[in-house]
Amino acid sequence: MKRLISLILLLSITFSLKSQELLSLDSCRALAIANNKALLISYEKIKVAHYQQKAAFTNYLPNISATGSYMRNQKEISLLNNEQKASLGQLGTGVSTQVQAYAQQLVTQHPELASLVTSLSGLDLETPLNAAGNSLVDAMRTDTRNIYAGAITLTQPLYVGGKIRAYNKITKYAEELARQQHNTGMQDVILSTDQAYWQVVSLVNKETLAEGYLKLLQKLEGDIDKMIAEGVATKVDGLSVKVKVNEAEMTLTKVEDGLSLARMLLCQICGLDLSAPITLLDEQIKDIPVTLTNNSYSLETAYANRSELHSLELATQIYKQKINVTRAEYLPSVALLGNYLVTNPSVYNGFENKFRGMWNVGVIVQVPIWHWGEGTYKVKAAKAEARIKQYELDDAKEKIELQVSQSAFKVNEAAKKLTMAKKNLEKANENLRYATLGFDEGVIPPSNVLEAHIAWLSAQSEKIDAQIDVKLTELYLQKSLGTLK
Questions:
Q1: Per the CB 3.0–4.6 Å rule, which of 30, 324, 333, 484 could disulfide with 166?
Q2: DSSP code of 284?
């Protein structure tokens, strides 16, 4: 919604430029805010911090991962050595030999059993036992040349020394810190926009003054030429007026050049083309309206509203949480672990070339025992960094107190200068009126008229500067109090 409003405002301002409509101060501010690259970057930083905060919260939740692998082995794993395999292959032969030896011994000891032993000796035990031994050897083969394995693992942290909680707080503070830095940048953009805007207005008024002054001098030059022709004035009077005309032309050129550069600066701040033919609303005002406001202030207002202080406070909180993160690295950690394992060949029913699996659940406990004081040193270092941020915050409060006092003093000073400038202008107008009448009557020399014109021009220029200075000093006071919006 905010982007849509900004886009509509930007399009309306662009259309007004193309239609040669006037730009107000608010329009310039909106353009500057919409097109300032530093503000766009800081806005993206807010997004980065926001998503990092969301990512940090996921550390509270269980982590599930899947793993799969395949391995080709040159040789298979053998449960029997070669001698054992050969013995099992000749099992029937060995058993038959032992039976015959035992039968002979039995006949020797008991001759009456000779017929029975002879009948039993005719049985063929060697062949089936050899076959059984060979079958047993084949059954003991593992065939582990091709191995497949897979696992699904669930890990749930139970206790990690408070690291997850501290990290979540850090990312939360970091997001707010990014917002405060964005607000600080926005106030800086508004301040620079207002400075450039009123600089253009000041130079436009001075250009008007310079043009009027030049016309007066050119008229005076014509009058002096006529007076010289009639013998009323001397050539010295004419030369002095011509010198002033040349000086006025040079002054007008300088003002025009300065105005062109000031317009370029305002266009650059507003994100417009440097050669855009912009016209400001306050250019048409001959007497800049100034309202003297009550400049009373409270330092508590500055402490509550200054985004720089909020940024330092958040930075202090971040470094305090970093102490907890550092300490947590040297505290016991406990996690719940669950797996489902699948292998091929499987060993759950002998060695089978089939995929078979099983699940398991357990608890992992890690306890740091000895690190030669590394944890203590790191924690002390983190505490020192936190104290540094606290000192920076205290120092910033002192500087802001001085800045607010200076800004309030400058507001009072600007108001006094404006009052004096208005009085000087009234006197300069009266002086110029008497000088012009006296010159027309021929009782005042041209040099006095020139001095009266110069005094009036200076008084008028000082009044314009004083009016703009009042506006800017009030702006600086709002900036120092953090109330600039």
A1: 324
A2: G
- Distance of CA 124 to CAs 38, 93, 104, 406, Å? 98, 10, 17, 119
Amino acid letter for position 170: I
User: Got the DSSP string for 350-390?
Assistant: BSBSS-EEEEEEEEEEE-----TTHHHHHHHHHHHHHHHHH
Number of Cβ atoms within 10 Å of the Cβ of 226: 11
**How is 173-219 classified by DSSP, letter by letter?**
HHHHHHHHHHHHHHHHHHHHHHHHHHHHHHHHHHHHHHHHHHHHHHH
Residues 6+ apart with CB under 8 A from 388: 319
Alpha helices in 110-162 (DSSP H): 114-121, 126-139
pTM above 0.90? Answer: no
* Phi, psi (degrees; rounded to nearest 5) at 150: -150, 155
